[in-house]
Amino acid sequence: MTRRIFTKLLGLFVLLLVFYTVIMEFIFRRMVESTAGATLRLLGREALWAGLIALAIALPIATWAAGRVTRRLERVVAFARRIADGDLSARLDYEGHDDELAGMEAALNQTAEQLGQSFAELESQRQELATMLDSMQEAVVAITPEGYVRWSNAVMRRIAGTQIHPGRPLVHAVRDPEVLACIRAALQHSEVRFGRASSLAPGRIFEINAAPLPSGGALVVLHDVTGIEAAEKSRRDFIANVSHELRTPLTSIQGYVETLVEDPHPNPETTREFLGVILKNATRMNRLTEDLLALASVESPNYKVTPQPTRASALVEDAIESLGGMVVDSEVELESAGAPDALIMADPDAMNQVFGNLIENALKYGKAGGRIRVGAQLLESEVEFSVKDFGPGIAFEHLERIFERFYRVDKARSRESGGTGLGLAIVKHIVQAHGGRIWAESELGSGATFHFTLPLARTTDGAKNVAETHQTVQQGNK
User: Domain map of the chain by residue range?
Assistant: First the structure.
């Protein structure tokens, strides 16, 4: 472009010189024709030769000057193209020049430097914003007015997968109708819309907030409320279960008391029988209240156990000795399956509650087997305890849920035996507070076994204890 401009200027300059020469030739010819004399003819020839010589000298000078300016302008054009392509480090070399072009080149360099600084600041802010959005717990995605993805954060990409990236329609990655309806309403009506999505990700629930953007499009924020919903459902279920468990004995007590009050001449035998039923239900309510308090205690964030080094064998022996009276009148034998002498970390009072609940549970549901076996075995870094009954057993589908609050395999049988449905939940929290694990194994007709683990003690002679543990385990494997 610059070459064409200067070619035209040079051509115009040549035309002007030729025009000047022609005019001078014409004037001098008229003067020569009208004036007889050799002097005028000589002057005409000299003027003509002077014009030709001037033209011959001017052409190379004009060509050199035009070429020089053209090259500098070409560098300016190349510089502008590099800037347009995003190379903000490009600079013009204008040293050694002191003209208007040098001033323009200096101004362009300054502009490029300012643009570089501005873009660096914008890039830094963009990266900070992207980092902040990626660190959010909420999923965030920006949508263009046409429904295409403008950008999304890491949480949204984890939810939607590889289908979501800038430039693609959002409907290719998100199929939840509630999300799409909120986005459509925000785009069409420029209003903030709220919703609830339950099919965006399996098993998860999201609150939707779709807001229009000032520059067009919409910003969608998805807040995962799965945990909140689960906690709320657990709370509702807990309240319903407690209400039901309390209502049953209260209704029974109220009915028997009303019968006694309304009978002016009660039969002593009937009165004794009614009072026995009232006492039984009152005892059940008292046990439920105690279990509720115990569960609230172990589920509290402030609940702490005080583990201390204890022999596993001593723990099993104490449990059998202290809880043996529980099975005296039940014709069930409480026996030991043996236990290692390894030191474990355990809170004796809490463990007494664990064994008590497990043995009581085995007594209620495994009484038909005639015996309950308590034992322990040494593992690599922990000791595994077990309480086994030889009753009817538990069906496989119940094993994962029996440690839930108020969950019963056989509700009618549980209420007849006076169970509250909270004992195993209490045991689970106590074992977990010790850093252990708990689970159940069972086959129908072969009884049920409840296992839990406690970590080995780390005392001053912990190295010796660990060495003894490994030695014992290796001997057992042999």
Answer: 2-87, 136-224, 231-299, 308-477
Give the integer Cα–Cα distance in Å for 222 and 141: 9
Percentages of the chain per state (helix, strand, coil), in multiples of 5:
60, 15, 25
Q: How far apart are CA 17 and CA 52, in angstroms?
A: 9
Q: What average pLDDT score do residues 452-470 get?
A: 63
Among the CATH numbers 1.10.10.10, 3.10.105.10, 1.10.287.130, 3.40.190.10, which is that of 231-299? 1.10.287.130
- Residue (of 335, 339, 334) closest to 376 by Cα position: 339
Residue ranges of the alpha helices (H) in 300-347? Answer: 312-323
Q: Of the CATH numbers 2.40.50.100, 3.20.20.140, 3.30.450.20, 1.10.540.10, which one belongs to the domain with range 136-224?
A: 3.30.450.20
pLDDT digits (tens, 9 = 90+) for 331-381: 788 888 889 989 999 998 899 889 988 988 888 877 776 788 999 999 888
Q: Alpha-carbon distance 377 to 312, whole Å? A: 9
CA dist 362 and 342 (Å) reads: 26
Interstrand relation of 333-336 and 343-346 (parallel, antiparallel or unpaired): unpaired
Residue type, 169: P
**What DSSP element (H or E) covers 439?**
strand 438-442
For the stretch 5-15, pLDDT in tens is 556 556 656 66
**CATH, domain range 308-477:** 3.30.565.10
* Whether the Cβ atoms of residue 278 and residue 257 lie closer than 8 Å to each other: yes
| Helix or strand (DSSP H, E) at 151 | strand 149-152
Residue 449: pLDDT band with limits 50, 70, 90: very high
Classify residue 284 by its DSSP letter: H
Q: What's this model's pTM, rounded to 2 decimal places?
A: 0.55
* Residue-wise pLDDT tens digits, 277-334: 889 888 888 888 888 888 888 888 888 888 899 999 999 998 888 877 776 667 788 8
In this structure, the number of other CB atoms found within 10 A of the CB of residue 440 comes to 18
Helix (H) or strand (E) run with residue 375 in it: strand 371-378
Give the alpha-carbon dihedral of 364, 369, 374, 375, to 10 degrees: -150
Beta strand 371-378 with 333-336: parallel, antiparallel or unpaired?
A: parallel
